[in-house]
Every structure is written in structure tokens, then in C-alpha cells.
Design a protein that fits this description.
The chain has helices spanning about 1-10, 15-25, 35, 60-65, 105-115, 135-150, 180-190, 255-260, 290-300, 320-340, and strands spanning about 25-30, 70-80, 120-125, 160, 195, 205, 220, 265, 270-275, 305-310, 345-350, 360-370, 375-380, 385-395, 400-405, 415, 435-445, 450-455. It is of the alpha/beta class. The strands form four sheets. It has an eight-stranded parallel sheet, sandwiched between helices. Helix 4 (about 60-65) packs across helix 5 (about 105-115), helix 4 packs parallel to helix 10 (about 320-340) and helix 6 (about 135-150) runs parallel beside helix 7 (about 180-190). Bound molecules: beta-L-fucopyranose (FUL).
Length: about 450
Amino acid sequence: MIDFLKEAAHVKPTQNQLDWYGLEFYAFIHFGPNTFTDREWGDGTEDEAVFNPQKLDCDQWVEAIKSAGMKGMVLTAKHHDGFCLWPSAYTEHSVKNSPCKRDIVKEAAEACKRGGIRFGVYLSPWDRNSRYYGTDAYNDYFCNQLTELLTGYGDIFYVWFDNACGEGKNGKKQEYDFPRYFELIHKYQPRAVIFNDFGPDVRWCGNEAGQARHAEWAVVPSELCHYAAVQTGPGPMAGEGDLSWIYSTEKELGTMPNILYSRGLVFTPSEIDMSIRPGWFWHRQEEPHSLKRLFHTYLTSVGANACLNLNLPPNRDGLIDERDVARLKELGALIRQELGEAIPASVHKQEGHGRTQPVYTITLDQPRENINYVVLREDIARGQRVESFRILAEFDSGNQYPLYQGTCIGNKKICQLQDPFAGQNPLTDDSQPEIRRLKVQITAARDEVLMKEILVY
Ligand code: FUL
């Protein structure tokens, strides 16, 4: 059992996954005929003539993205309706037969480059327009389109495969040849990470509402992400159990009771994907979510060992709606206000011995009445190890006070101690003693704890 936990602690990310973690927060862009027909899922029979953005400006998208502190864009090059935002040589159902006639993938890629952010593509395997869908020829068709995207638009940081698999034009279902798609990406864009419900590089968090798990492990049973590389042998209970039921929507994925039954472990962290509005595509009557909700999602995704992919739907002009632009600016400003500049402090590690775990003491340069956040980061390149921790405040008198209890840490854990939307904390008055030190006590870990950074805000 102990050996297996040690093995689990040494399951490691690839360099591509580490680079992806570094981006933290990036934007989805859902744009296509649905924008003009007021639908979420087009059926592929839409006339190309409906796609007619008159003021399309991808630099405006990039500006809005950057104002919230996002570092990349993932464009729906083709959604389920099969309409291509680039003039693909393999179909007539694309921008080339619309009044717009512009290569939107190219314009978006170039705007990202100008703006200094990364560019990625969403390509829907489910294609309700293609006459090949449901036949072997469809995988060739899909690979041809993927190749166009991988070879014609510069560096791609991310390829996002939607796992939805419905019926196509001819009422047939398609068997997707994912291993073949992955091979193309490895060949033409070896630095790109691949998103798919079942791995290999990044997995789905299990909902589209921005709700992260409390413990979001990057090391999960291979039954869940069977396209990722298995890095351990089977768990000690594997013979007795069967985890084939496990899906991204399960509450517990990487926790001990599950991994002990697994047939081996993979490193596949989770992405939280949600839209800034209720729909993925733009609908006039919809409003952006509140600043409070978006900030909360940021804390529980970027700040819970995942990345956040926040969708911004351009409107019929081809611009990000002014209401969303304003919300993004507010969000960027709030993130900078709350987590922009760390409080000067020094960290000292007291090693654990035998069965005890290490304690990190953070001594503030100046005592303070309030601490709003503690940000913890494991050296994730060497594996994910911490299972639980707690944070205590220590006053000048030496008295201690519990502040926070947490489970896993991973790449980044933002522990929120004060809510900026809650108003004045009743405890904050002149009689409040000042905090001199914080203690981060690791209470359980799978192997030696390797923290990379502890910051206080
Ligand atoms: C889902 C799709 O069906 C939605 O339309 C959207 O693209 C979302 C990101 O993924 O599977």
C-alpha cells in the first residue's frame, strides 16, 4: 500500500502539461452560424449565407481576453454544425461560401500573435453536415481538416476535442479514430496539449457550470483517461475492484479509495470550462454572469490545481459584446487587486520526521490584522503529493488560531480567507490582535513534500 502511494506521488506531468498549467486562464471563443440563428447546436443544414459578421475584429477579442488576464484563445474552428471558420479545401460548408469570405482562423491566430497570447483550436469530431459522417471515410475527412489547421496557422498550443458523438446527416453514428488524430498533432504541433474527456493531456472537469471538485487531483485512474500514458502498476486492490464505471462527472477521482482500485495511474489534470453567459454562443437576451460568480470560479479552478477556459461568444457583428467586455475588465481588475502583490514575508520549513509531516512557518515582515489569501504551490513537475493541510494564524502573544483546512494542493491552491464580496468582517476591529506568523501544517502526503512557493495576500 505504502509503495503504491509512493508510486502515485511520482507520476509526473510532461513539459507540455507544465506549460499549459503556466497559462492558468484562457478564453474559449464560440462563433459560427449559431451566432446568427440563435441556436446552441446547429444541425448542419444552415445556409452559409447566414454567416455575415460585418465588423469582425479579432484584435478586439484579444484586447478583451487580455483585460481579464487571460493568456490564450481557443477558437471553435468547426462546431457540431460542420461549418468551418477557415476556407477548408475539403468542404463547401465554410466561410468561403458565406458573404464574409474571410479566413477567421487566420485572423484570430494573427491577432493572438500580435497581442502576445497563445492560440488554440476546438475542432468538433461530431459533424452534422458532412456526408462522410458515419463511414470510414469520415476519419480521413477529419484528419485532412485537422492537418489544415495544424499546418497553416503557426504555433497551436491546444487542440480541444469535443467528445459529443451524435448522429450525422445520414443518421449514422461515427467511431472516432482519436489515436490517429493525436498522432497528427504530435507530428505537426509537438508542443500542443490535447483536451479530450478521456485524456491524454487534459481532461474535462465533468460539468459546464464552473464547479470544480474540492480535491482536484491531476493523478487519476487510467480507467478514466485511457488515452494517457500509464505511469504505475495496478493499485493493490485492483484485482478485486473495477473502476470501469468511472466518468469525469464522479465526485471523487484521484482520492485514495479510488486509486487503490485502479489499473494504473496517469497524469491528466482537469480543465474547468464554462461560458461567461448561460449559452456557449451569443444570444441577445443573455447577460454575463456576475463578477462574484466569475471570481469564485477563478479561485476554485486556477486556484484548485486546474486551468480555467472561460468562453466569450462574439456577437453578430463579430465583436465581443460590450457587456462582456465590461465584465472582463472588472474581473481582471479584481484579480489584480486581490492577488496582484504578495505581502512581504519569509518562509521556513521544519522537516517532518518519521510519521510527522513538515510545517512551513511564514513570518510576515510587518504584523497585520488581516490575511485575505494564502497561495500554496507544490513542485508539480516532481509529482502531486499533499493530501491534506491546515493553516493556522499565530499572534504576537504566541496564541494560534485555525484559519483554513484543505485537501490537495497540486500546481496552485488559492486558500481564500476573506471574501471581498462579504463586506466588513465583524472580527476586524481595533481589538483584533495582529497576525505575526502563519503556519502551514501538512497533515497527510503520499511522499516527501516538495513545495515550490507559499505566498500571502
Ligand atoms: C460541448 C458542446 O456540445 C457545446 O456546444 C460546447 O461546444 C461545449 C464546450 O462542449 O460538448
